[in-house]
Design the sequence.
C-alpha cells in the first residue's frame, strides 16, 4: 500500500502522510483559511445587514417597531374592519343552521353522512369564530387607538389654550 494515492482504510490519508502536516503547510493553510473567512464574513455580513434591514421593514408592525398609522388612516379602516367582523358574525349564525338539517334516511350511510356534515359544520363555525374574533379585535384596537389619540389631542389643545 505504501505511497498509494487512494485511501486504504488503514488510517493513512490519500497522500500517504498518515495525517501529518508540516508546520509550514499548517501556517499556509491557516493563512488561506483566514483570508477565505474574512472574505466570506465580509460578504456574509453585508448580506446579513441587507436582509436584516429588509426584515425590519417587513416586521415593524408585527414587532411593535416603527410602524405608524395616522388618525385619518385609522378612521378610514375602522368601518371596514367592523363591517368584516359583523359579516363574519352573521356567517357564524347561518353556519350554525347547518347542523339543524336532518339526515335523509334512517340507514347507516345516511347516519354517517349526517355525522360528517355536522363535523364539517363544526369546523366551519370554529374557523369563522376565529376570523370574527380577529376582525373584531382589530376593530376594537383601532377604536381604542382613535380614542386615545383624540383624548391626547384634546388634552394638548386644552394645555395650549390654558397657557396662552
Sequence:
Amino acid at each position: 500500500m505504501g505511497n498509494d494515492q487512494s485511501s486504504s482504510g488503514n488510517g493513512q490519508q490519500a497522500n500517504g502522510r498518515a495525517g501529518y502536516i508540516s508546520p509550514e503547510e499548517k501556517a499556509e493553510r491557516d493563512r488561506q483559511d483566514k483570508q477565505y473567512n474574512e472574505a466570506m464574513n465580509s460578504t456574509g455580513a453585508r448580506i446579513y445587514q441587507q436582509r436584516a434591514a429588509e426584515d425590519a421593514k417587513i416586521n415593524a408592525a408585527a414587532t411593535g417597531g416603527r410602524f405608524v398609522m395616522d388618525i385619518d388612516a385609522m378612521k378610514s379602516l375602522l368601518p371596514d374592519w367592523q363591517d368584516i367582523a359583523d359579516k363574519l358574525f352573521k356567517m357564524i349564525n347561518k353556519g350554525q343552521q347547518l347542523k339543524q338539517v336532518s339526515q335523509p334516511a334512517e340507514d347507516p350511510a345516511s347516519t354517517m353522512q349526517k355525522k360528517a356534515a355536522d363535523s364539517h359544520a363544526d369546523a366551519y363555525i370554529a374557523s369563522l369564530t376565529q376570523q370574527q374574533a380577529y376582525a373584531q379585535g382589530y376593530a376594537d384596537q383601532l377604536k381604542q387607538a382613535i380614542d386615545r389619540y383624540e383624548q391626547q389631542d384634546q388634552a394638548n389643545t386644552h394645555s395650549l389654550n390654558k397657557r396662552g
Q: What stands out?
A: Residues 77 and 142 are 8 Å apart (CA to CA). The first helix runs from residue 23 to 59. DSSP finds three helices and no strands in the chain.
